[in-house]
Amino acid sequence: MAPAKSATRQMKLALHIHATGHHVAAWHHPRSQIDAGSNPRHYIEMAQLAERGKFDLIFLADSLAIRLGDVKAKGRWPQYLAYFEPLTLLSTLAAATSRIGLVATASTSYTEPYNLARSFGSLDHLSAGRAGWNIVTTGNAASSRNFGRPEHFEHEDRYRRAQEFVEIVCGLWDSYDDDAFVMDRASGLYADLDKMHVLHHEGESFSVEGPLNMRRPPQGRPVLFQAGTSETGKETAARNADVVFMQQQSLERCRSLREDIRGRLPKHGRDPDEILVMPGMAVTVGRTEAEAREQHDFLQSKIHPDVGRAILSAELGYIDLPEMPLDEPFPLDLIPEIDGGVRSTAQALRRVVEAERPTVRELYQRYANGRGSHQIVGDAVQVADELEHWFRSGAGDGFIIQPAVLPGGLEDFVELVVPELQRRGLYREEYEGATLRDHLGLARPESRYARPALQDAN
Amino acid sequence: MQKTLKLGASIRGVGYHVSAWRHPDVDPRAAEKIGHYAELARIAEAGLFDMVFFADALATRAIDSPLGAAARYPGDAILDPLMILPALAMETRHVGLVATSSTTYHEPYHIARRFAALDHISGGRAGWNVVTSFSNREAANFNRAEQLSKPERYARATEFLETAIGLWDSWEEGALVADRQSGLFFDPSKVHAVNHVGPHFQVAGPLTSSRVPQGRPLIVQAGASEEGLDLAGRYADVVYSIPRSIEAAIANRRELQARAVKFGRTGDQILSMPGVQVISGETEAEAREKYRVLLDIVDPLTALGMLNRQFGDVFTPEMLDEPVPAEGPAEGTSYSVARESVKRAREKSWTLRQLCQRVGLGQHFQIVGTHDRAAEVLAEWFTSGACDGFNVLPSHTPGNLADFVEHIVPRLQQRGLFRTAYEGATLRENLGLAPL
Prior knowledge:
The complex is a heterodimer of chains A (458) and B (436). Chain A has helices at residues 40-52, 71-74, 86-96, 113-126, 141-144, 155-173, 231-240, 251-264, 289-301, 305-315, 344-356, 360-367, 380-392, 408-423, 436-440, and strands at 12-17, 57-60, 101-107, 131-136, 181-184, 189-191, 201-202, 207-208, 223-226, 243-246, 276-286, 374-379, 398-401. Chain A is of the alpha/beta class. Chain A folds into two domains: 12-289 and 370-457, TIM Barrel, CATH 3.20.20; 304-367, no CATH class. In chain A, the strands form three sheets. Chain A has an eight-stranded parallel β-barrel with strand order 1-2-3-4-9-10-11-13, surrounded by eight helices. Chain A has a two-stranded antiparallel ribbon with strand order 5-6. In chain A, helix 6 runs parallel beside helix 7, helix 7 packs across helix 8 (251-264) and helix 10 packs across helix 12 (360-367). The longest helix of chain A has 19 residues, at 155-173. Residues 1-6 of chain A have low confidence and may be disordered. Helix content of chain B is 39%, strand content 14%. Chain B has helices spanning 34-46, 81-91, 108-121, 136-140, 150-168, 226-235, 246-262, 284-296, 300-311, 336-347, 352-361, 371-383, 399-414, 427-430, and strands at residues 6-11, 51-54, 96-102, 126-131, 176-179, 184-186, 196-197, 202-203, 218-221, 238-241, 271-281, 365-370, 389-392. In chain B, a hairpin with a 4-residue loop joins strand 7 (196-197) and strand 8 (202-203). Chain B is globular. The mean pLDDT of chain B is 94. Chains A and B meet through helix 3, helix 4, strand 6 and strand 8 of A and helix 2, helix 3, strand 6 and strand 8 of B.
């Protein structure tokens, strides 16, 4: 009996592209693209493949400095070292695809709102409504040293600045009403300037006069993404975000975070359904479970201990970790005390250590693939079962798929898992619309300057 | 082997003519479409152009003086050129991709990354037109009541370039080893911190990009002030300039070469490419007719708005049929190109309306005549040492650019003055610049 597909709520899927793959040792695997960081063809082919797999979007993370940490580990771990600036790359991918959403991280701490509004607004125009901005405040202290600040902004300052930044950017996108550019050749009138709005923003961190020199983006506003599960992060997401990314290892935690975030929307005048929560999923799929397991074990065996320690150091906020016996329990006292405002990744790691007391090797192996995300290793049915279970349990509105090895892991996912999810009626067979907002089921926002609706006569 | 000239195509919306959108052959909505820019890049590449170039602005420009001018100005709905070019990289294989970016309102780390990505994506075809931005409107979008002074802007630009170049050099060739046997992905000894500390920037580095195909993107500069010439002499590979006579062009090129020497470079490391508009036809009459259409479609209000933006609020519609004032406001502008226009109007005793028509069409060197004559003039400029090539500013697109490619390029090739195939793989190679 065919499932009643149209009646079933379907999951959204994002592809998180990490050059050679999400596993720190991915580049050792023959199915990784070893020159990924400077090979645009690799990204184009993946974007096109993800589009054939009907993914909602591809997502490119970013950092504004090369990865910190131990030099010995650096040479063995290529992530966040030499790769494409994501906005530039997305524009290339826009030209090579026609449906899939294009999302990049950009920092509110080290860019100017006017520049950022232009870049993402342009991407939305170039892609005909497929742009998304992952708002980050940048947690990497090394970035500050590339932007003239000896120290990074404090956590709360970062978020305060981020809130002001986002409001400016959204305001700039509304500079012209959708129908402002009349282009009437006969009268010579190019724009109706009654439909132009000057922002006049004067705030704590920025003063931006406006207007933006750009037509309103096709989506009205590119889709806003946010990650981070700190208290401030959740609150900022509830105010601004259309989609929340998270990297969490437990279903229960994802479910409660999703409920928590949804519950915060009404106080910002939003409906809980106006936000989608998408946990990361580090997926390794094979034709058989054994095949998947073999790939996974191969990658785990290739993690050099220096790299393993560097992973854990990064999760804990780039603290120095001593050399440790690999097969003894990870010392709990190495984890910094948690007080308000500490990175959520460190909190998540503490929870794992407290609950399970893993050895050093077990712990870094667990973070080696997709960092804090839940890992699934199995055949197509097992992977689909797990995704379905999480989805039906309310742990997410969809998932960010983080293949261990790229492009191999994406090829496997599209070939094996996507048809299985479609068979179950859990995932689209065709794109529903043209824009990223259409795919995600999000409404096109009205301009902040739109006339208020007429009062109901009653 | 005979030296050949270089060609660039400047792309702005649907043309450099301020009312190009009203031209009967133009689709006014094309300015918003990537397909339009892709078509222009392909036309330029079919014509073996060295590069396409996009200007930029970080604020709206229109001023509503006289009243109604702002609503008639088409230049305030534009896209970020650094987002257009990576898309064009997919549509082309040879043509260079040059974008304007401001050193006043960006950070070196971002700019270095974006041009590095563009250079990797395009296989070595990226170029950066370095500008310092000169409007208070732009300042007001970036936390400033008014813009920095010119010396401050250029001091910042110099330090910006020094820093960006340091970042592009932070990864040595061959730093990526990707040796699965040894487990070494890259050789940390070939990656260098920048540790730049200066009055405007403190940048630790290294860059998040391996060394780019061109070593570093092409550096382009315009701006003819003393400060601008020094910046060009120090860093520029190519200079866009605005001389309107062969004599001025020769002097300008000599000056630039001397500036390069002043900063320890050789004169042949800096290429002068004056802007040119070519309105040509099979016959003189056809060319004149094309020219007449272009003058006719200029909206005088729009053109007055441009002049008032350049000179301050001095021109009114009531003055349109009077001669251009013999003295007064015209000297009070930092736009050297605008000063030239007014000077010329006075010499030719134009009315303000006639000046508006010319200014609306474009303020660069213009050639109106037969295809043969146009090619002859370009050849004359080049062979007399007035330039290393031209930056073509199409009045309206695609029509005027397609005309150049169809009619002028073959005539330059017949004279042996222009390539018949791309010589190299990168923009620098095509321009004949020595490897870094």
